[in-house]
């Protein structure tokens, strides 16, 4: 059994959906059936976030919702004739969504309501893709993943209940895969009481890994609009290098530092069951792409990773006392409490600095909670640069003409925080 994951770009219009059909058709016929995980089409998730935001603020969301309808109906018209039952299915989904949107209230339950709305992107995409596959005689069946991937109710960042999920996959998904390909949604899960959760933005890769782990799949392939796993974002760096083979460990670390190519949670379930992960281009399906697996390799090309919208916060004791362990534990407790992840930290005699993702609202509350103890300064709009497996030329290249606010290096990793990003 194999798992394929198609992201938003790979189903962004009718031509893209056809291409997915071609990829599935061209799989060796002796192959077992494939579990296909699909994300929302194109930029639908962003569109749904906008619709939800308006509904939450009790504003008129009709126009934003109509844009999404038009976008999906255009794809339907390009793929199917007017009589096809898929129109009714899509209409039903939009109707359910609209009915829900009218019940959205400006309450404390922002995240909970967000999940109920934003999940429609994947529901729509999976219905359309499944119908299209059947239409071109690729045998497939649609699966609602929400009763299968059981999660807690930490909305927008739900945690998987592995035991229940494993059982559900065993009982309800494996049998389906004996007969046909299965098309299901990325990014979604469900609670015990039937509500929808999401696994975090860009979480469909993670979904593919969850299914692969529970199915003991032979491999996972993530189909992308780039050739494979690259050493930098090609939108920012003109001369990227493709890693042909790379270890789980190396990939996890890159994802941790902010490489956006794979969702950071994806690797663990694969690594623990030693399932190889292929990253391939849906534009060049024949090309080998990257294989990420349990392997050792020599030093690889330096990876350039950027995290934008960073904030550097520094703390000093009010009376110029030294920063000690007790101060640090106060700071760490507050960081954890306000859910700030430390991307980089450093301490000196009288000050301690952390670099975190910027969130205006939480930062304000965080600072308020500590301002009796410390003098706190912060800078926003910063970029955290990481070079993994650096060499001197790579450092020279990246630091050129940049004002560096903080810098750190270990044996394998060089990082700095700067006011200047890359345009
Ligand atoms: N559609 C979701 C998002 O855009 C999940 C995903 O694409 O992986 O965040
Ligand atoms: Mg997406």
UniProtKB/TrEMBL annotation:
Keywords: Amino-acid biosynthesis, ATP-binding, Kinase, Nucleotide-binding, Transferase
Listed InterPro entries: AceGlu_kinase-like_sf (IPR036393), Asp/Glu/Uridylate_kinase (IPR001048), Asp_kin_monofn (IPR005260), Asp_kinase (IPR001341), AsparK_Bifunc_asparK/hSer_DH (IPR042199)
GO biological process: homoserine biosynthetic process; lysine biosynthetic process via diaminopimelate; threonine biosynthetic process
Catalytically driven reaction(s): L-aspartate + ATP = 4-phospho-L-aspartate + ADP
GO molecular function, one term: aspartate kinase activity
UniProt keyword annotation of Transferase present: yes
GO cellular component, one term: cytosol
Pathway membership: Amino-acid biosynthesis; L-lysine biosynthesis via DAP pathway; (S)-tetrahydrodipicolinate from L-aspartate: step 1/4; Amino-acid biosynthesis; L-methionine biosynthesis via de novo pathway; L-homoserine from L-aspartate: step 1/3; Amino-acid biosynthesis; L-threonine biosynthesis; L-threonine from L-aspartate: step 1/5
EC number: 2.7.2.4
Coiled-coil regions, chain positions: none
Residue ranges occupied by any Aspartate/glutamate/uridylate kinase domain in the UniProt entry: 2-281
UniProt xrefs under NCBIfam families: asp_kinases
Protein family (similarity comment): Belongs to the aspartokinase family.
Name used for this protein in its record: Aspartokinase
Organism, scientific name: Adhaeribacter radiodurans
């Amino acid at each position: 059994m194999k798992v394929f994951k198609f992201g938003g770009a790979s189903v962004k219009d009718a031509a893209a959906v056809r291409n997915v059909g071609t990829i599935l058709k061209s799989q060796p016929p002796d192959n077992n059936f494939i579990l296909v995980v699909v994300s929302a089409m194109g930029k639908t998730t962003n569109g749904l976030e906008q619709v939800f935001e308006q509904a939450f603020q009790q504003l008129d969301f009709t126009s934003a919702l109509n844009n999404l309808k038009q976008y999906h109906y255009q794809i339907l018209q390009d793929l199917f004739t007017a009589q096809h039952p898929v129109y009714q299915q899509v209409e039903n989904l939009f109707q359910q969504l609209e009915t829900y949107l009218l019940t959205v209230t400006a309450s404390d339950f922002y995240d909970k309501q967000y999940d109920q709305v934003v999940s429609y992107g994947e529901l729509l995409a999976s219905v359309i893709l499944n119908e299209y596959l059947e239409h071109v005689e690729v045998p497939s069946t649609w699966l609602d993943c929400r009763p299968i991937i059981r999660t807690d109710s930490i909305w927008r960042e739900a945690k998987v209940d592995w035991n229940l999920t494993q059982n559900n996959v065993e009982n309800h998904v494996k049998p389906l895969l004996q007969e046909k390909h299965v098309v299901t949604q990325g990014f979604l899960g469900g609670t015990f009481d039937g509500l929808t959760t999401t696994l975090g933005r860009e979480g469909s890769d993670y979904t593919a890994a969850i299914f692969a782990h529970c199915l003991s799949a032979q491999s996972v392939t993530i189909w992308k609009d780039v050739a494979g796993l690259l050493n930098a974002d090609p939108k920012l760096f003109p001369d990227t290098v493709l890693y042909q083979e790379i270890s789980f460990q190396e990939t996890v670390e890159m994802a941790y530092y902010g490489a956006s190519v794979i969702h950071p949670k994806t690797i663990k379930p694969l690594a623990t069951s030693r399932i190889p992960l292929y990253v391939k281009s849906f534009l060049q399906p024949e090309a080998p792409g990257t294989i990420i697996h349990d392997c050792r390799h020599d030093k690889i090309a330096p990876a350039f990773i950027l995290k934008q919208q960073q904030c550097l916060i520094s703390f000093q004791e009010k009376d110029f006392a030294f920063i000690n362990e007790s101060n640090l534990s106060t700071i760490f407790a507050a960081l954890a409490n306000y859910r700030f992840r430390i991307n980089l930290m450093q301490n000196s005699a009288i000050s301690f600095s952390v670099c975190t993702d910027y969130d205006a609202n939480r930062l304000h509350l965080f600072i308020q909670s500590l301002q009796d103890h410390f003098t706190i300064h912060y800078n926003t709009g910063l970029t955290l640069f990481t070079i993994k497996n650096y060499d001197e030329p790579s450092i020279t290249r990246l630091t050129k003409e940049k004002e560096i606010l903080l810098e750190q290096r270990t044996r394998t990793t060089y990082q700095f925080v700067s006011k200047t990003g890359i345009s």
